[in-house]
Amino acid sequence: MKTIYHKADSRGHANHGWLNSYHTFSFANYQNPERVHFGVLRVLNDDSVSKGMGFGTHPHRDMEIISIPLSGDLEHKDSMGTTAVIRKGEIQVMSAGTGVQHSEYNKNKDEEVKFLQIWVFPREAGVEPRYDQKSIVESAKINDFQQILSPNKEDDGVWIHQDAWFNLANFEKGHAKDYTLNKNGNGVYAFVLKGSAKIGDQILNERDGLGIWDTKSFNVEALEDTEILLMEVPMELPDYLKK
Questions:
Q1: Quick one: pLDDT at residue 53?
Q2: Per-residue DSSP letters for the chain?
Q3: Is 161 assigned a ligand-binding role in the annotation?
Q4: pLDDT band at 139 (very low <50, low <70, confident <90, very high)
Q5: What structural domains and CATH numbers belong to the chain?
Q6: Does 172 carry a binding-site annotation?
Q7: Per the annotation, does 76 bind a ligand?
Q8: What's the pLDDT band for 85 if we cut at 50, 70, 90?
Q9: Is 58 known as a binding-site position?
C-alpha cells in the first residue's frame, strides 16, 4: 500500500472576505506542482461563504462537479434551467460536459454556508450536461460506510461519468472497519471532516487528507467520534487528457 499524507495546515488558503477557501490541490492562485491532483480527483476545496454572498455565473466544461454542504443552505442556478437549494444531509452533482454556466450563493442572510467543492475528471469529454441532487440522510449509517456517489444510476446517492465511489464513514470512538476498493487501479483519498482516525500507520486529524493506492483494502480506525469522506477514484487519467 502506498500513501501520501497532506496535513490540514499544508493546504492552500485564500480569504477573499466573502469566501474563505482551503485548497487541497492546486486551484486559482494556489499552484503547487506536487499537488495538482490525485488520480482523476482534481479539486477538493473546503469553502465558507459569507451571509448572502456567493459565486456569480461562470462557465465549466468536461468536469464532474460535486458539492457536499456541511452547514447552511447553498442556492444553485444554471444555464440548464435548474434552480435548487442544497443543505446539509444532501449531495449535489453537475456534469459540465459540453459546457454549462452556473452560480452558487449562500441562501441565508444570517449565517455562513460551509461546503466541500469537489471536481472529478469524467472518463470521456463532451457528455451532455446534467444536474442532480439527493438526500443522503435516509441512508446514513453509524459505524459503517455509507455510499453517496458511484458510476451506477441505480445505486444510492448520485452518479457521475467516472468509475468513482464516495463513502461517508461515521465511526464511534474505537470502531474499526476495512474498506475494500471497488475497482483495480483505483485509489482512495480520505479526508477527515471531524475527529481523528488511523489508516495504516498514519494518524489523521480534522481536515487532514491521505491518498491511498496500490492496495485492495485498508483499515479505518476511529480514535474518537469521527466523520471521514472516502473518495475512491481511478489513478490513471483518461485518454483525452493525455493528448
A1: 87
A2: -EEEEE-GGGSEEEE-SSEEEEESS-BTTB--TT-S-BTTEEEEEEEEE-TT-EEEEEEE-S-EEEEEEEESEEEEEETTS-EEEEETTEEEEEE-TT-EEEEEEE--SSS-EEEEEEEE--SSSSPPPEEEEEE-STT--SSSEEEEEES-TTSSSEE-SSS-EEEEEEE-TT-EEEEE-SSTTEEEEEEEEES-EEETTEEE-TT-EEEEES-SEEEEEESSSEEEEEEEEESSPPGGGT-
A3: no
A4: confident
A5: 2-236 (2.60.120.10)
A6: no
A7: no
A8: very high
A9: yes
